[in-house]
Amino acid sequence: MPARARDFGLVCGTLPPGPLNAITDVAGVRVGHWTLREGDLMTGFTAILPHGDDLFRWKLRGGVEVVNGFGKSAGLMQLAELGQIETPILLGNTLSVGTGFNALVTRALQANPDIGRETGTVNPLVLECNDGFLSDIRARALTEADAFAALDVAAAGPVAEGAVGAGAGMSAFGFKGGIGSASRLIVLDGKTYALGVLVLANFGRAGDLVLPDGRRTVPPEAPAAGQPERGSVIIVLATDIPMETRQLTRVARRCGAGLARLGAFWGNGSGDIALAFSTAGRIAHHEPADFVAMQALNENSIDGPFRAAAEATQEAVLNAMLAAPATSGRDGHWRPSLADALSRAD
Q1: Would you state the pLDDT for residue 223?
Q2: Which of 33, 232, 280, 286 is buried most, with the most CB atoms less than 10 Å from its CB?
Q3: Looking at the record, which segments are called Disordered (predicted)?
Q4: At 34, which CATH number?
């Protein structure tokens, strides 16, 4: 089994994790990967499905925080304006955003013949990081079929981490990066709720990584000091806590605290985006009422989700890095394994 942070005694914060310590601890959330490894290609799609029904018909409240906007994602503008998620979420590489967009549109049109006729269009959510260091991003090799494959294998349960799906060619802090996940449990009014995070980790300067125990870990053959930060990180946060869109945006903002704990400073060339949604309180596409009832978190109790977002994000990034093996990619480019470095240090 791939290593995770807790296998190395690295514990982020004080809140307890869920049973899986993954975004799928939020009931109904499913994750799927499709990985392409062939020659100089090391890339893929990762799909997050917030629930098992038609998201266009039964939307969820969501929010987005753009920590640093050096990115080419699709759908964030409408999400920020309307606060609603109406498609699965696809993660891929920078030049596959259009392909992912088309795949989500195709699926939505197949399931909803009234789109673009009796009702409006659809807002696909596709987010990206640049995997061009290890993979030939110019090949634009990912297809709609690859996106469909990630969507079709999405499942509840443990989340595959490391160099899988969209994480296949990613790097973090000079090490191999990729997909990671973590969760936290919060008790509110005597009931236990889950908050889970999935990250696509492709950010951080070599030498800047700070572990939860205060150690700094520098990869072998690290580039010279002073290199600019040009990476990116996508954070998808799910929770079953009832929250309004403004609250979800506030919680998404706290994911940045988890990145900062790791030593990130969100450089000029970094695309750092956090997207959050709640599975509580679906929104019907054809709601006939002028007013709808909505349950929302008491603002005085929001510090719990704030803390959970920071802790889960920090741990999810470490899980992504520790699960990823040392990798040689395009033109002999190489990324070492954080797990190997920590094992040698021990």
Answers
A1: 61
A2: 232
A3: 327-346
A4: 3.60.70.12
pLDDT < 50 positions in the chain: none
Place of tokens 């394994």: 337
The 3-state DSSP class for residue 195 equals strand
Catalytic: which of 171, 181, 270, 337?
270
CA 159 to chain centre: 12
Of residues 198, 137, 182, the one with CA closest to residue 329: 137
Quick check: is 346 in a domain? Answer: no
Catalytic pick among 131, 136, 208, 272: 272
Count how many domains the chain has: 1
CA distance 58 to 54: 6
Q: Helices 144-152 & 97-111, crossing angle to 10 degrees? A: 60
Whether 21 is covered by a domain: the verdict is yes
The owner of tokens 């490894």 is 37
Domain of 182 in residue numbering reads as 5-341
Considering 73, 171, 181, 232, which one is annotated as catalytic?
232
Active site residue 272: yes
Tokens representing 117 are 């006729």
Which uninterrupted H or E stretch holds 292? none
Cα(231)–Cα(25) distance, rounded to whole angstroms?
A: 28
